[in-house]
Design brief:
This protein has 370 residues and is of the alpha/beta class. It folds into two domains: 166 residues, Glycogen Phosphorylase B (Rossmann fold, 3-Layer(aba) Sandwich), CATH 3.40.50.2000; 182 residues, Glycogen Phosphorylase B (Rossmann fold). Helices cover 43% and strands 19% of the residues. It has an eight-stranded mixed β-sheet with strand order 3-4-2-1-7-8-9-10, sandwiched between helices. It has a six-stranded parallel β-sheet with strand order 13-12-11-14-15-16, sandwiched between helices. A two-stranded antiparallel ribbon has the order 5-6. A hairpin with a 2-residue loop joins strand 5 and strand 6. The longest helix has 18 residues. The relative contact order is 0.12.
C-alpha cells in the first residue's frame, strides 16, 4: 500500500493524522505500507516513523498552498511499481497529476477529503485533470454521504457508478479522548481560564473556520467564555476583533496546545463549537474528538459532514453558517441546561465509539482494498 499526499508526521493536521492512523493501522495488520509526501526542505529524506517507511521528496516551490516536488513522479514510479494499491489523498494536485503521468500500482484508491473551494484560479486549470483521475480511480472514498451530493465532482460519478464512490467514516483513537483526565488537572485548567461556562473551539485559524462568528456570538452571551485552541494566519486579526468586541478575558486564546494536553482541554469545556462557514470544512476531525470526550456539539449546516457527524438535537445543535445570533442562541441553550448537555454528550460519545473509532476505519478501508 502506498499513500500519497503533501505532508506527513510530524506535520499535524486532519488529513495528515488520518493518513498516519491508516498507515500505522495497516502496518500493524501485517501489510507493507509506504508513504510518499514532500519534505519541508529542498532535499529528499527517507525515514521510518512508527514502523512506516516515509519518503519525503525535496520541495521546490508552493503553488496555491500545494507544495511542488519535481521528483515526486519518479519516486511514485519507484515505490508504486510493485504496490497493490496506490492510495491518493485529494485534493493534492501534484500527487494526482503524478499518478496520471506514471499510473503506478495495480489499483488506485482516492480518499476525497474536500473540494477545492478558495483557489478558484487553480481549480479552473486543475478541474479537467481532477475529473480524469477520478474517472480512472478504482474506488473513491468519502467520509460522509452529504458531501457526495453537494460536490459537483463526486455527484455525477456516484449517479453513474454508485459502487465506485463509497462512504468510509474517518476514525480517531476514541479512548484517548474518552479516558477521564485527572479531576484536579481539569479543575485547575478551568480556574486558569475562568468564566461560568466554557465553549471550546479547536482548529487552525483559517478563513473557513468561522472563528470571527464565534467571537461575535460570545459578545452576545456574557455568561460564556470562549476557549480557542490553535494558531494560524488569522490569529492577530481575531485577537484584534476580540478586543474591539470588548470580550476581554472571555476570549481565551490558548494557542497551539501540546497533543498530550488536548484531551484535558476537551474535558474542561462545557460544549464544543465548530462555527465553520465554507464547504472547505468537509467533516471536522475535531468534532470526532469532542464527541469522544463526551461534549455536546454545536456545528453549522454546510451540506457536508459537519451536520452528519453532529445530529441535530441528538448529539448537539446545528445552526446556519455565519449567523452569530443563532450560534449565540445555541450556546445559551446549552449553557443554561446541564441535563441537556449531559444527554447530548453521552449520545455523542456513544456515536464516536460505535462509528468513528480508528480500528473500525482501518477494517472498512481494508475491505475496500480487498
Amino acid at each position: 500500500i502506498l499513500h500519497v499526499y503533501k505532508d506527513y508526521a510530524p506535520v499535524v493536521g486532519g488529513i495528515e493524522n488520518h493518513i498516519r492512523w491508516l498507515a500505522e493501522g495497516f502496518q500493524a495488520r501485517g501489510h507493507r505500507v509506504d508513504v510518499l509526501v514532500t519534505n519541508t526542505a529542498r532535499r529528499t529524506r527517507r525515514e521510518t516513523i512508527a514502523g512506516v517507511d516515509v519518503t519525503k521528496c525535496a520541495r521546490q516551490v508552493n503553488v496555491s498552498s500545494a507544495p511542488v516536488a519535481l521528483s515526486m513522479p519518479w519516486h511514485l514510479h519507484r515505490l508504486g511499481r510493485n504496490a497493490d494499491v496506490v492510495h491518493l489523498h485529494a485534493p493534492y494536485p501534484p500527487g494526482e497529476l503524478a499518478q496520471l503521468l506514471v499510473q503506478a500500482g495495480r489499483r488506485t484508491v482516492i480518499t476525497y477529503h474536500s473540494d477545492i473551494i478558495k483557489q478558484a484560479t487553480l481549480l479552473r486549470f486543475y478541474a479537467p485533470f481532477l475529473r480524469r483521475i477520478l474517472a480512472r480511480a478504482d474506488r473513491i472514498l468519502v467520509s460522509n454521504p452529504p458531501y457526495i451530493q453537494s460536490s459537483s465532482f463526486l455527484r455525477p460519478i456516484a449517479q453513474a457508478t454508485p459502487e465506485k464512490v463509497q462512504v468510509v467514516h474517518f476514525g480517531i483513537h476514541v479512548e484517548r479522548f474518552a479516558a477521564p483526565q485527572p479531576p484536579a488537572a481539569v479543575e485547575q485548567l478551568r480556574s486558569q481560564i475562568g468564566g461560568e461556562a466554557l465553549a471550546l473551539f479547536v482548529g487552525r485559524l483559517r478563513y473557513y473556520k468561522g472563528v470571527e462568528v464565534f467571537l461575535q456570538a460570545l459578545a452576545r452571551t456574557p455568561r460564556i467564555t470562549g476557549v480557542i485552541v490553535g494558531s494560524g494566519a488569522l490569529e492577530a486579526e481575531l485577537r484584534a476583533l476580540a478586543g474591539r468586541l470588548g470580550l476581554g478575558e472571555r476570549a481565551h486564546f490558548a494557542g497551539s496546545v501540546p497533543d498530550d494536553r488536548l484531551p484535558l482541554y476537551y474535558q474542561a469545556a462545557d460544549m464544543f463549537v465548530l462555527p465553520s462557514i465554507h464547504r472547505s470544512e468537509s467533516l471536522g476531525i475535531v468534532l470526532l474528538e469532542a464527541m469522544a470526550s463526551g461534549l455536546p456539539l454545536i456545528s453549522t449546516e454546510l451540506g457536508t459532514g459537519t451536520s452528519y457527524v453532529n445530529r441535530h438535537e441528538q448529539t448537539g445543535l446545528v445552526v446556519p453558517p455565519g449567523d452569530a445570533d443563532a450560534l449565540a442562541g445555541a450556546m445559551t441553550a446549552l449553557a443554561a441546561d446541564p441535563e441537556l448537555r449531559r444527554r447530548y454528550g453521552e449520545a455523542a460519545q456513544h456515536r464516536a465509539r460505535t462509528e468513528f473509532d480508528v480500528e473500525t476505519m482501518v477494517r472498512n478501508v481494508e475491505a475496500v482494498y480487498q
